[in-house]
Amino acid sequence: MAEIAFRNVCKSYGATVAVKDMTFTVHDNEFFCFFGPPLSGKTTILRLILGLERPDSGEILIDGRPVNGVAPAGRNIAMVFQNLALFPHMTAEENIRFPLVERGERPDRIAARVGEVARKLRIGHILHKPPALLSGGERQRVAIARALVRDPVAYLMDDPISALDARLREEARVELKRIQREAGRTLIYVTHDQEEAMSVADRMAILEEGCLSQIGTPSEIYDRPVSASVACLLGSPVMNILPLTKEGTAAGGAIRLPPVLRPQAAAFIGIRPENLHVLQQDNDEDGSCRVTDVEPLGGTTVVTVDAGGAVLRAVLRGQPDIHIGSRVTIRVDVAHVHFFGSGGEALHQHREGLA
Amino acid sequence: MSAIRLENLVKRYGSFTALRTMDLLIEDGEFMALLGPSGCGKSTTMNMIAGMERPSEGRILFGDRDMTGVPMGRRGVGFVFQNFAIFTHMTVRQNLSYGLRMAKLPQAETERRTLAIAEFLRLTPFLDRRADGLSVNILQRVAIGRSAVMEPAIFLLDEPLSNVDAAFRAVMRAELKQLQRQFRQTMVYVTHDQLEAMTMADRIAVMDHGVLQQVGRPIEVYNDPVNIFVATFIGAPGMNLLKGRPVQTDRGLAVDLGPLGISPPLGSAQACALRAASGEVIYGFRPEQASLAPPGEGIPGSVTFEERIGARSIVHLGEGSTAFRAVFEKDVPLAMGDVAHVLPHPDAVRLFDASTGRVLKG
Amino acid sequence: MTLSDAARRPAVSSVPRPRDEGAALGFRLTLPAQILVLFIAVFPLLMQLYLSLTDWAPLTGTAWPRAWEYWNAGANYVDLLSDRRLWDALARTGLIILICVPVQFLLGLGLALLFVDDFPGKRLAYSILIMPMMVVPAVAGYMFFMLFQSGGPINGLLGSLIGRDLAIAWLSDPVLALVAVMLADIWQWTPLMFLILLAGLVGVPADQMKAAALLGASPWQRFVTIVLPRMRPIIAIALAIRVIEIFKIFDTLYIMTGGGPGSATETISVYIYEVTTQDLVWGYVAAIGLAILIVLSVIAAFAVRRLGESRA
């Protein structure tokens, strides 16, 4: 068991509220991701878990045991730093062994532990090499092995791959997820990249200005966001948010929704770009909307449409023959429309995600 | 005239060659992306265009004018640094007007142009703030504005979005495109992010190890990569590459993929290309241009990993040298360990020579 | 936001923190050492203040703690205001500062600018350049004493330049002696100015310099708009150090001229030395010392404030 829980935790720095009344539970063996824009409180949460900060109020529990008064060393939580912080003058094995040697473990215990972790992370064949001779992915594994060798309750990572090239980032995140699956253990992960968060997380928490907005699997949050702002944090291009008139039209009449299908209080609708269909008209006069930008990405094409003054983005499959200036009509499947109230709150009934 | 012509450009640092004989014509008013991994020579090329470094060999021409020996201050290019290089001891206004003041333009003119560019980049509220206290997103716009105010015919940007947070990158991409459309400068944009290059550029120059690999419109580079480097670097994820040998089947020419069995029969163009091949080939297809097929029809692979990113799901199949990926619409009924059969769209298959990595053409 | 950002933020909390307890314990443990340091720094100052209010001198036959027997209630400070020799020495010291500091600054800055970019033999030139600073001032004094003899190498060199024998009596002419003393100081201390300014110049971000060049700024414009503003705190410190140092100029000068001819090169330090060793009026000397300390403190405070301004 390794469960980390916050119960009504608050933390302020002077007048700045960094964490506001936060309650959540991270389960055993989970890849749990905190995601939010800068200054949303992600790093403060990590510091609270590590014990570098104390909550102003509320309780932090590790395996059901309150740890508010426990110093960082007593919490048995490991941190993997962004730059990995491997010692360059030691081999991979010496690096991994380091925390145990520091703790004065018996040599046979150390050897057994290092062997076990190395096997799990599949780095047995590189143990004799210094970090300089390892690839990026191998270094990552060694750093994680060093964190896991102490047998921690959980290990934390603060935006570990943001410094890499875009292509390497895509590989590194898959690698990370694999490592976590193989090695087990709870991994608490912080990132500001929505694609990375959705890719790696078993479950994720969306943070906005120190508040926990939503918690759930990436798909749950993507499909059933609790608010327009959460909806806009996930997905690229971002969700199209349009004001809805009393008559049930949006985008200057280009979108009409029958009254029975929309909640009374709906003030805004949200449409994911992949759910917006753009139909090319043979006759240029027919279309009510005009294409203002086309971005071919190969597998998909992002089309920007001016619909009655509203700017809508649509993701089309493949490489359709659409050009800037084309007249088009837009269609949307009501089942894929998100409704939001005047305060941006979601108006459908899917709120199970909020723990 | 602000076309940029690079002729036989070479740059060496001691015994290390950073750039090997580069020839490139960037048209007047074109948005050209120099794309490649770190150390591919893209920044070196850019620095030589700006005049910050001197080429070891070759010439740089703006229009018909040879600029090779012209010092950087007199080339009239706008340059946005990766770290923005904002003058932190000045206000935003002083930063924006810097070039105009150094050129000793009349005060009224300086004022007018500074305000206009500040308005365009939504910097008006920050004009009298000192630059060292501002957020990265604002600094980035100051960096662009400081060069744009000079109305340069050529605008060079060195990975300007790499320090900007992920959510803001999309906004900045749109803004840069709009800027370029409005002023019609020749824009050269250095990046390692293929998405940035694909979404913004008129044409992309893909570079690797100091060698220009391919130049073309984004969709051309995506559809018809000249070699396996370009094939894997472009696209998210990059192209799947599987080693194999030509084989004749009763349904036509195909590729024997070893442990993965025989590939689906090739289309006529690829079959033609395969006939020209000798020995091993690489069978390539895009993860996005494939669908699930019944057993026996596609390429088999056990699901090792699935990434669900919003509406897309990237499925990783197989291990080691037989690993490949497929991108599906969200709800694909696959679980870890399942064996899936993936059928590439016949038009989307590309073949490469296994020894040279070059694409095979019929 | 990174971990370190969060760490830098002031952490205000009503809950007592282990960190605070640690700080309190640390304070208690280091208290004896802190008291000792305070004592060492403050005691001489208090002693000086005490003596400056008396007519005490070592020859009075009483130990200094009983100097109150010679209490004169600030008469020393009144005398000080009308001490013609003191004011002359002060003016002379001021003149040396006004000439030497700007010259050292300009020379140091010029040299530093040369050393920003690489050139062949840079390391050697650098070593030679900072050598004078490392010469013991007394040795430098004797060196210049020899150089400026009327039959010495300086006259010889100048003579060969203009083609006839020269016998300028450098150190016995009131004006030329002052010039010689200043030349010696410039020779010895320009390197320090050079070192400090070079450190500042190297700290100017290269990308900002390139950005300015790309925006069309000439080298001079770049210097004025980027380099100087960024170097302001460093320049303030360099100037303050040199002003304070020259205010106390003594050893080299005393060996070269002994403050003469007459009192032509008598600076504050030389004057105090003379008064202390010959007139033996220690109470008065203490008063002068304190007055000068106050003047120097004002200069130092000004420099520190400029440093703070440029950070704000």
TrEMBL record, chain A:
Pfam name, any one: ABC_tran
KW ATP-binding (keyword) present: yes
GO MF annotations in UniProt: ABC-type transporter activity; ATP binding; ATP hydrolysis activity
Span of the signal peptide: none
Residue stretches making up the ABC transporter domain: 4-234
Key word Cell membrane present: yes
Alphabetical list of SMART domains matching this protein: AAA (SM00382)
Keywords, in A-Z order: ATP-binding, Cell membrane, Membrane, Nucleotide-binding, Translocase, Transport
Cellular-component GO terms for this entry: ATP-binding cassette (ABC) transporter complex, substrate-binding subunit-containing
Family: Belongs to the ABC transporter superfamily.
Name of the featured protein: Carbohydrate ABC transporter ATP-binding protein, CUT1 family
Protein source organism: Rubellimicrobium thermophilum DSM 16684
Automatic annotation (TrEMBL), chain B:
Keywords attached to this entry: ATP-binding, Nucleotide-binding, Transport
Molecular function GO labels: ABC-type transporter activity; ATP binding; ATP hydrolysis activity
Recorded superkingdom: Bacteria
Domain called ABC transporter: residue spans: 4-234
Cellular compartments per GO CC: ATP-binding cassette (ABC) transporter complex, substrate-binding subunit-containing
Gene3D superfamilies on file: 2.40.50.100, Nucleic acid-binding proteins, P-loop containing nucleotide triphosphate hydrolases
InterPro entries: AAA+_ATPase, ABC_transporter-like_ATP-bd, ABC_transpr_MalK/UgpC-like, Mo/tungstate-bd_C_term_dom, NA-bd_OB-fold, P-loop_NTPase
SMART domains according to UniProt: AAA
Family from the record: Belongs to the ABC transporter superfamily.
Name the record gives this protein: Carbohydrate ABC transporter ATP-binding protein, CUT1 family
Organism: Rubellimicrobium thermophilum DSM 16684
Organism ancestry: Bacteria, Pseudomonadati, Pseudomonadota, Alphaproteobacteria, Rhodobacterales
Automatic annotation (TrEMBL), chain C:
UniProt KW Cell membrane keyword: yes
CC terms in the record's Gene Ontology section: plasma membrane
InterPro entries on file: MetI-like, MetI-like_sf
Domain ABC transmembrane type-1, first and last residues per copy: 90-303
Main location: membrane
Cell location: Cell membrane
The keyword ATP-binding appears for this protein: no
Membrane topology: Multi-pass membrane protein
Stated family: Belongs to the binding-protein-dependent transport system permease family.
Name by which UniProt lists this protein: Carbohydrate ABC transporter membrane protein 1, CUT1 family
Annotated organism of origin: Rubellimicrobium thermophilum DSM 16684
